[in-house]
Amino acid sequence: MLHLKPTPPMSSFNLLLSALTKNKQYSTVISLCNTLGSSGLLTDFITLNILLNCCCNVNRAGDGFSVVGNMIRRGYFPNKFTYTSLIKGVCKEDRIHEAVGLFKKMIKLGIRPSVITYGILINGLCRTGHVDNALKLHKEMISTKGRSGLICKPNIICYITIIDGLCKAGLMDKAKELFLEMKGSGMSPNVVLYTSLIHGLYSCGDCKGAEDMYKEMVDRGIKPNLVTFNVLIHALVKDGKVEEAEKLLRTMIQRGIEPDNIIYNTLMDGYLLVGKLHEAEKIFLSIKSSGRKYDVTSYNVLINGYCKNKKIEEAMNIYKEMICEGFSPSIFIYSALIKGLFQTRKIEDARRMFDRMRLNGMVLHSKIYLIFLDGLCKNGCLAEAMELLNTIENNSIKLTIEMYNCIIDGLCKSGKLEIASQLFSRISQKGLVPDVVTYSIMIHGLCKKRNLEEAEKLFLEMDKEGCAPNLITYNTLMRGFCQENDSTKVIDLLHKMAKRKLSPDDSTISIVFDLLSKNERYHEVLNLLPKFPPPEPS
């Protein structure tokens, strides 16, 4: 076209650019517009609007504003298509305040927004959490009147967008209100709208409402799609009805809807949550037999399931398979494997796995360090754990109180109370605050060494520091005093428990029985026991 003599009119080029835009070839259109400019051809207002639309679709709203500046310099006046493209561009980049400003500006200039403009802005507002403002805009659409009736009647897309936003925000009453309004205006809801409402109702715990909405959809002759089945299966799995969810999977396959990996992974996860590892394995195998490929989540779910069930050999086999398939394991997979290796006392393999993460250039966060520290401590590698903690302290890795807790616990259990006390005193120097777990561990260690005076002192200290003892703390200290047959201290702690409205558990009752059995004057002790409030119904 560029080499033809005479050169075709710009309208011919615009037809080509419009066709490419409809096929979402935005980058190609931008490149061709640059070629047109460098060829000396003068682009017109339509060309500039096409270019602006493409810039905004590829998150280049800044270039879009430059195109508008070019329009104005050439004497063109931006119209509703220009403003709609700009609003879409800034909404895609989450610059919602700019989008609202552009919308107000076009109205001020007397440019009437189209239903598409309203829809784009409503979508942007809902997506960025401004559902209240989206509702105001919707109200404006149905209430503002021009000389020929409604200025811009909402279409089905507008209703779907705002109802979906309300569902995601948990505002189900308002969502249902708009749903009835939409039906009252003569519009027929589609599968997308029903799916949003079903998902919203399930998310808010209204299972009955979700089931009724699904029945209404089916009664209207609207067939559920893949997303609908995803929502239904997820809801059933969440409710522990995994067998029903698998029946639904078979139903959708019979209806010719191919399940995606999300559905298979959800079912696997559901079976693992109810302790049915074998069923999860069958779902995993059915992914491949259905002609689909595993994704990283499929591997992640099964590896995690194997590790939790201490089937580390099987977990490692799946790990090797995913490596062969070209997947890079996520930090969650490494975490599950390291934890599983430590639980099955494969300490050297856990070390190698941890080193492999670092060699692969993976950024290790505090949680993975905590898993590794905990594994070392539980396997008696306290010197190595202390060395690693020193490394963490001297580098830019975020320290957490849980790191100190697991090492202090390991030291106390191995009888190294003095080193545990030194580490305990180091906590505040590192800008951390001991929590109830830290204090409980230290108190348990002191009681184990029969140093009850220090244990009680620490118990009183934690209360002064604003760290309220929990039931475990009380039971630990009471057990220590009970072993010394000190009924006065035990009764005093029981009264403090009652004052804090902490209900006794089986361990507390066992301590009291133990105390009464050791005391010849158990009737007197029994009369001194406090009255606890009845436990709240679950």
From TrEMBL:
The keyword Repeat applies. PPR repeats lie at residues 44-78, 79-113, 114-148, 155-189, 190-224, 225-259, 260-294, 295-329, 330-364, 400-434, 435-469, 470-504. This is Putative pentatricopeptide repeat-containing protein. NCBIfam families: PPR. Belongs to the PPR family. P subfamily. It comes from Senna tora. Transmembrane segments: none annotated. Keywords: Repeat.
